[in-house]
Amino acid sequence: MKSSLVKMMKVNVIGAGLAGCEAAWQLALAGIEVTLWEMKPKKYSPAHKYKGFAELVCSNSLKADRIDSAAGMLKEEMRMLGSLTMECAELSKVSAGGALAVDRTKFSDLVTERIRSNKLITVVEEEVTELPDGYVIIATGPLTSEGLADTIGKMCGEYLYFHDAAAPIVTYESLDKEKVFFASRYGKGEADYINCPMNKEEYESFYNALVEAQSAELHSFDKEHFQKDGFKVYEGCMPIEVLAKRGADTMRFGPLKPVGLIDPRTDKRPYAVVQLRAENSEGSMYNLVGFQTNLKFGEQKRVFSMIPGLENADFVRYGVMHRNTFINSPKLLDERFCMRSNGKIYFAGQITGVEGYIESAASGIFAGLSLARKLGGKNAVTLPKTTMLGSLCAYVSDETVEKFQPMGCNMGILPELPNRIKDKKLKYQTLAERGLSDLRELITNF
Fold this sequence. Notes:
Layout (H helix, E strand, L loop, with lengths): L3 H5 L1 E5 L3 H12 L3 E5 L23 E4 L5 H11 L3 H9 E2 L4 E4 L1 H14 L3 E4 L10 E4 L7 H11 L3 E7 L2 E3 L9 E2 L10 E6 L1 H13 L7 H4 L16 H5 L27 E7 L6 E4 L8 H8 L10 E3 L2 E8 L1 H4 L5 E2 L2 E6 L9 H19 L12 H9 L27 H21 L2
Parallel strand pairs: 1-2, 1-7, 2-6, 7-17
Antiparallel strand pairs: 3-5, 4-5, 8-15, 9-13, 9-14, 10-11, 11-12, 12-13, 16-17
């Protein structure tokens, strides 16, 4: 029997995408009444076309299903936590080799039917522009409507962004330490940057490859936002390939400037320098400073691997340039997706900076589960960082992150194993087994 406290509680969930549906589902499983707000079919975002919930816009793939992959590991964690997404995906899957892909319409219809038939969930088809009173989970995705975005902006201040101009991120472990060095310009402060020095020949080869590389096709709803030089330019967000096309030396006076840096191997200033900055407090991931880009992912791998020290780099995230609405979660949220400044407001989905279908759904699961525990008078739960979802939660709530970029699941965000395993497949399998074991143990103590 549910406690009288839980029976009295009602929660508003805004947005019936993957994250919102998962959050509402978790709350309902805990016996909590939910009002789920969805502006479709009265109003559609530029990307959405179908009337159903949990609409998959860009692809019908939920990525690899192997346990020894980041996506496969995360999906197994979601199943263990009672995921609605995984249940409906299994019933609507189509053949896709080693990936989990679904019939989009059937998948959406299944999620919609599950949500609408749940007696504890009331669906209201209206656009929300002001937050309702009481407990709220905001799960409105990367194309949040203008009215609600204004409200969120007033609440979050400077920590609300309306575009995603992100640089690639690589693992520290994969760098060639013989070719790079730690230093800050002019030796000021701590040696916080990893520097990849280039001689003239290396720079010219890199420059020629960069300006000839192929860019990704923009979605129609992005094109209006990115016009000048292929993009509507935001301060500090110029794509590196666009900057390069303005002149052979433009990058050397911009993000690749070598001034104030001395290569300890030569005791001379390099011709150009690519700098890498720590992405997390553990220093296991680094982003390429100033390398916002719209190149195709394969082109990024090919061209950026020409940078000295990055020849064998493991890219845990490629650069992107597209329209997006997301908050600077490390400054605003705790590990349970709750606002630090307001314990009644939670966020879930891509608006938090988790990137991808399953990542969004997983964040909705944990936001809903966390709020349900709070309303039920239970102790708060922090997921182990050894789990994929736990590492994503830790990443979006890491207060030491200064230049926050959205992140999808990847093995690079997991804590290292105590003993190094060189074989990548075996390493990933061991990481997954460790994380899933830790989650099983946590669940038994819920």
